[in-house]
Amino acid sequence: MSALYLLIPVAVVLVGLAIWVFFWAVDSGQYDDLDSPAHSILFDDEDPKHKAGVDAPTKDADGPDQEPPRG
Q1: What does the alpha-carbon distance between residue 59 and residue 66 come to, in Å, rounded to a whole number?
Q2: CA distances from 51 to 9, 40, 45, 46 (A)
Q3: Number of other residues whose CB lies within 10 A of the CB of residue 56
Q4: Which of 7, 30, 39, 62 has the fewest CB atoms within 10 Å, i.e. is most exposed?
């Protein structure tokens, strides 16, 4: 029975901490854009037309994956 005097306040503090962390995450924008990371996996990282937010290294102009120049 004496363990409950310790476990109940610890549980209340942990729930309060979890609620505070959740509101901090919402306020700092952690949940603003949930769709872009899921969709960015569909695009090739080295595609120069796709802007994923991270600068991917570009291939040489004479590489086999490049389209021929239009002219």
Answers
A1: 8
A2: 49, 9, 9, 10
A3: 13
A4: 62
Look-up of token digits 């990282």: 45
**CA 39 centroid distance within chain:** 12
CA angle 65, 43, 41 (to 5 degrees): 135
Quick: pLDDT tens for 13-71: 999 999 999 999 999 988 888 788 777 777 766 766 666 555 545 555 555 556 666 65
pLDDT of res. 34: 79
Residue count of the chain? 71
Select from 29, 52, 34 the least CA-distant residue to 42: 52
